[in-house]
Amino acid sequence: MQQQLVQAIKNKKLSHAYLFEGNNKQALKDEAIHFASSIICGDNEMCRLRIEERNHSDYLLLETDEATIKKEMIEDLLHRMHQKPIEGIYKVYIIVDFDKVTTQGENSILKFLEEPPKNTIAILLTTAPNEILPTIHSRCQHILVRHDHDITLSLSGEVPAPILMTLAKLSMSEEEAKTWFNEKNFAEIRTQVVKWLQTLLNGDMMGLINITSLQSLLDDRASQQIVIDMVQLFLQDMLYMQINEQTVSSFPDYEANLRSLSQKFSVEQTVNMIDMTLKSKQKLLQYVNTTLVYEQLAIRIVGEVKK
User: Fold this and answer.
1) What are the residues whose beta carbons fall under 8 Å from the beta carbon of 307, sequence distance 6 or more?
2) Would the keyword Nucleotidyltransferase be found if you checked this record's keyword annotation (predicted)?
């Protein structure tokens, strides 16, 4: 389970709604079920087994083989989730393939997300985030779930290992990774993103000026979004260092820098900065001006650094 989720449970700072995104449906389900089990059960193995068997009164997973998830399915789920927890503190519901929810269903759940019942948590899963209403995006905390073990093997030898690790953590397919590396100047974008972020983590507002040179490398919306994703990955590596994880999973060639930075900030500061990247991603998905999104992120990171 991703460390920001572990920390959210530990610090009792759970959001009322999460949107899990990724390109592998099973990986999304596994991560969501693990998260739900940790919220409801803690270390109680019997309780976790009941979650896996879908036999817990405070847990519901909605999944269908139909082409769409209809309004009636959503309203039935919401009726059940408006009831108070029976066995514990929280109720958790998961909706698989949330991009299949009809517009009417999305509008129903939007009202629920605007005024969520106390101690009720929604986990929405999607492999097609662009098909979900922006207003849903804006009311959820975004979690990128990566399925990374395939291309690290298939492209070994074709792409330098550190860059391949980053491409893998960005949930790219083999063809996507080849295109980004060979045709989209990914290595240079990656270098400039790290340079920009390190400037900000040093509390230097020159990072605002560096945005112009960074954007000169970006030729489409996908590139602009990947910048935010890489910032998040770098900060996650920093967090792993802080909680004594030995492996740097996304930027192994910056391990020494990450180790130094991890000693400079508290876990809370790092988690806060990761949250900032998630909010920036929401804004990009809502087509807020990219320069404005980058500038606001830079100012907020520097503000956190100077606390």
Assistant:
1) 269
2) yes
pTM: predicted TM-score of the whole model, two decimal places: 0.60
Phi-psi region of 6 (alpha: psi -120 to 50; beta: other; left: phi over 0): alpha
Compute the chain's Rg from CA coordinates: 20
Instruction: Look at strands 120-126 and 17-21 and give their pairing.
Output: parallel
- By CB atoms closer than 10 A (0-12, 13-18, 19+), residue 188 is exposed
Quote the percentage of the chain above a pLDDT of 90.
Answer: 52
Cβ of 152: how many Cβ atoms within 10 Å?
Answer: 16
Is there a contact between 145 and 22 (Cβ–Cβ < 8 Å)?
A: yes
Averaged over 87-111, what is the pLDDT? 91
Considering the chain, what is the average pLDDT of its residues? Answer: 88
